[in-house]
Amino acid sequence: MQQNFDTTTQEYVEIIYELQKINRVARVKDIADKRGVSPSSVSTALNLLKEKALIEHDVYGVVMLTKMGNELGKELEERHQTIKNFFIHVLDIKPEIAEKEACILEHHINNQVFESLVEFIDFVENQPAWLSKYRNYKNELVKA
Ligand SMILES: [Zn+2]
Predict the structure, then answer these.
(1) Distance 75 CA to ligand 1 centre (A)
(2) What was the pLDDT predicted at 18?
(3) What angle do CA 91, 19, 14 make, to 5 degrees?
(4) Which H/E stretch holds residue 21?
(5) How far is the CA of 63 from the centre of ligand 1 (A)?
(6) pLDDT at 10
(7) pLDDT tens for residues 91-100?
């Protein structure tokens, strides 16, 4: 589903999904804080999300994802975690960088590529010897 929506839309859904998990609902002010933009630009963006039937938005500044919005949020969270874990546990990338890069990539990665990545991670996790060989190889590169 992620591929049906532009990056900005996905990013807003992701923020609202995260806020809803903590507070049950998201407020315009909190969305603005998270995104680092003004409440008025959040309102403009939210109108577009409403047109796409991803959210419900009342006059008191409370925002809730629709069923479809929730599904998209869940999908993005799964992608985020999968890509982040791959960066950290397979590629040995620092958590802060992994977090930031996962959040960029998750909005662009194509379904087929993502599915292949999931398969690859599954394969690697079941081949500890393969992973430690790769670690050794990387260590050798550092020394060289
Ligand atoms: Zn993310």
Answers:
(1) 10
(2) 95
(3) 50
(4) helix 7-23
(5) 19
(6) 96
(7) 999 999 999 9
Question: How far, in Å, CA of 34 to CA of 26, rounded?
Answer: 11
- Please give the distance, rounded to the nearest whole angstrom, from the Cα atom of residue 99 to the centre of ligand 1: 8
Q: Residue 9 Cα, ligand 1 centroid: separation in angstroms? A: 12
| 143 alpha carbon – ligand 1 mean position (Å) | 34
Q: How does DSSP classify residue 89?
A: I
Q: How far apart are CA 142 and CA 144, in angstroms?
A: 6
Span from the CA of 93 to the centroid of ligand 1 (angstroms)? 16
pLDDT digits (tens, 9 = 90+) for 44-67: 999 999 999 999 988 788 999 999
The Cα 132–Cα 5 span in angstroms is 39
The three-state secondary structure class of 37 is: coil
Ligand 1 mean position, distance from CA 31 (Å): 14
Residue-level pLDDT at 17: 97
Structure token pair of residue 71: 């599904």
pTM for the model: 0.87
How many whole angstroms separate alpha carbon 31 and alpha carbon 62? 10
**What would the two tokens of residue 101 be?**
């890069």
